[in-house]
């Protein structure tokens, strides 16, 4: 009986230890991982964009045309649909920083993480489900924004809106490191 109890205690400890390890694992993700399947499918099935500048642009906010390609682009570019399974998940994602707030020493304290350089500054910005609002960074100097970074932390499906764009995800930073492939 004592041996059975010891084995049961041992197995319980192993299970708890293993569960603790898996809960703290950081999952490296790509930007397309953040898109729900239906958005990704629309993006992958996009017909070729026509560059007829004599017609209204589907990227204009007041676009009223009936081009099906333009309507599909509008749907993708405005999507704030998220993948709920990423809520409260530890992730590592590469991207570029679009500063939103600074401290008195000009360190970036909150920012949008975006998949490509210049996003949110050029029109149109990425869709909300391709922008992550990030807080909790330390010692991230304003002149470092031209380089890509790996950002690790806890991802949530909290939306944040700012003049530069809307993020469908938020992330509390654990670690910021220079991007290496």
From the structure above, extract its key features.
5-stranded mixed barrel; DUF3299 domain-containing protein; two-stranded antiparallel sheet; disordered N terminus; DUF3299; single chain; signal; 181 residues
How would you explain this protein's 3D organization?
It is a single chain. This protein is 23% helix and 28% strand. With 181 residues, the chain is of the alpha+beta class. It has one domain: OB fold (Dihydrolipoamide Acetyltransferase, E2P). The strands form two sheets. Strands 2-3-4-8-5 form a five-stranded mixed beta barrel. It has a two-stranded antiparallel sheet with strand order 6-7. It is globular and about 50 Å long. The relative contact order is 0.16.
How is this structure best summarized?
The protein is an alpha+beta fold and 181 residues long.
What is the topology?
Elements: H1 2-24, E1 27-28, H2 37-44, H3 68-77, E2 89-102, E3 108-114, E4 132-135, E5 149-156, E6 160-162, E7 165-167, E8 169-178
Parallel strand pairs: 1-2, 4-8
Antiparallel strand pairs: 2-3, 2-5, 3-4, 5-8, 6-7
Mean pLDDT: 81
Number of helices: 3
Number of strands: 8
What is the third-level CATH name, the topology? OB fold (Dihydrolipoamide Acetyltransferase, E2P)
Percent of residues in β-strands = 25-35%
Radius of gyration: 21 Å
Which stretches are low in confidence, meaning pLDDT under 50 for 5 or more residues running? Answer: 1-21
Shape: globular
What's the level 1 CATH class? Answer: Mainly Beta
Distance between the termini: 54 Å
Overall CATH architecture: Beta Barrel
CATH superfamily: Protein of unknown function (DUF3299)
Q: How many domains is the backbone divided into?
A: 1
The biggest sheet amounts to: 5 strands, mixed, barrel
Strand order of the largest sheet: 2-3-4-8-5
Q: State the share of residues found in helices, binned by percent.
A: 10-25%
Elements, N to C (H/E): HEHHEEEEEEE
């Amino acid at each position: 009986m004592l041996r059975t109890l010891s084995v049961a205690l041992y197995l319980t400890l192993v299970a708890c230890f293993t569960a603790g390890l898996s809960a703290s694992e950081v999952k490296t993700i790509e930007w397309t991982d953040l898109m729900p399947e239906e958005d990704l499918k629309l993006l992958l099935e996009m017909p070729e964009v026509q560059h007829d500048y004599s017609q209204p642009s589907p990227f204009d906010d007041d676009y009223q045309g009936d081009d099906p390609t333009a309507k599909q682009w509008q749907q993708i570019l405005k999507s704030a649909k998220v993948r709920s399974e990423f809520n409260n998940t530890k992730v590592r994602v590469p991207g570029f920083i679009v500063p939103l707030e600074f401290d008195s020493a000009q360190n970036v304290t909150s920012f949008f993480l975006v998949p490509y350089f210049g996003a949110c500054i050029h029109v149109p910005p990425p869709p909300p489900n391709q922008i992550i609002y990030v807080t909790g960074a330390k010692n991230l100097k304003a002149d470092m924004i031209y380089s890509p970074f790996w950002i690790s932390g806890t991802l949530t499906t909290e939306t944040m809106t700012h003049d530069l764009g809307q993020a469908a995800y938020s992330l509390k930073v654990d670690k910021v490191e220079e991007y290496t492939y």
